[in-house]
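User: Show me an example of a complex going from sequences to structure tokens.

Assistant: Sure. Here are the input components:
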Amino acid sequence: MIYKAIMIGGSAGSFQVVTKILSALPKTLNMPVFLSLHRLKHVRSGFLEALSLKSNLPIIEPNDKEQIKPGRAYLAPANYHMYIELGNRIALSTEEAVNHSRPSIDLSFITAAQAYREKLIGIMLSGANSDGAYGMKKVNEHNGLTIVQDPNECQVKTMTEAAIKITNINHVFSTEQIINYLLKL
Amino acid sequence: MLELGIVDTRNVIRTIAEKYNYDFSDYSLTAFKRRLEKIIEQQNLKYSDVLITKLRNNSGYFEQFIDELAIPSTEMFRDPSLWRVLRYELLPSLISEYGNNFKIWLPNSVSGDELFSLAITLHELNMLNKVQIFVTALSTISIDNIQSGTLAASKLELSTDNYIRANGTSEFTNYYKTENNKVFRDKSLIKNVTFSRQSLNIEPPAQGIKLILFRNKMIYYNQTLQSKVLTQLFNSLVTGGHLIVGTKESINTFFGSNEFSLVNNTESIYKR
């Protein structure tokens, strides 16, 4: 297996898709999944629980400097940016919002691209602003694999179209195709 | 967007250590690197070498650099549930226990958001005159900025919402004025606050500290520096004194020969 991590970015309209992916991935997945999803800044609980309902993988809202382990999904906590830090750890940050977002998908993708380089799979799902598009470009520049949910399938296609516009994306897939692709890894 | 390499970042850190004796080598690398990228971009310095030259040749610039390096807090009354705990439980019980000599310390202050949130809460409890608040900051620019009462306009909406969620008993608009699209908080709230400059070592500004607010500051340290700073904070507190950190800053309560006990898990409140 050449890939070491999966990072999924999403916003409006991505919840169902993330849920489907998490319910399809096996418990035995031998890499971590990072979820950088836009969410309300002031609501700390509930999101993790809702995502966990159908997930095979345990989902964690990591503490700062938490060690990354395979077979787990890490959800960016409310009102924190989530970085992939050196030494196989997650770092959190409260720096300024990027694209009005904290967590910012761009920042998660940029730091993951630097940490995992060609061993990262970046997946961009439905969403209503352009956060994440620049991050996908960085994943691509570090020779990681880029997958974007087919804008025609997205509830809101601003985010996926923005990613496709500035980067030569490897695969534009439907949710089902994304799942099938990940299962064949 | 500029992207600094790790080597570039380490070179900046080395320059600062050699010239100014400030050691940032145990700061979280990713966040520190991003901060440098931001400074280089905003000041149109283009490369890290230009920043290094500027730091080497212009000592006057260093104070500004330190100020810009610091990451301001996100808004006032962040985590309203913590502010409700402070309002209804922690502050009333601690202040009645310790009487009028209740010393509170806010280390590494940058934007004053925690300070004004605290002052408003105490004011509404009629306890502002019973406490002594110490604010320390890495740069005098930060101190001037906090003392001016300035609140970044972008934080106003969320701060107002949070104030309501924190069960503020007044109107948030009573605590600030808007002039030329700038928001200034009521300076009378902080007239008895003691301000001083600190180094990276976070020296306590006084003895007998009973409460420290240090939220979302340790996330910018690596684990080595986190435990060093925790030891320092532990030693600054009286026995029974409280430390509040960020909700995602889980601290290992045992470090060295010291031990904090966990008081409130969801709000990350610890006690010496």
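The lines above are the inputs; the final block is the predicted structure for all two components together. The radius of gyration of chain B is 19 Å.
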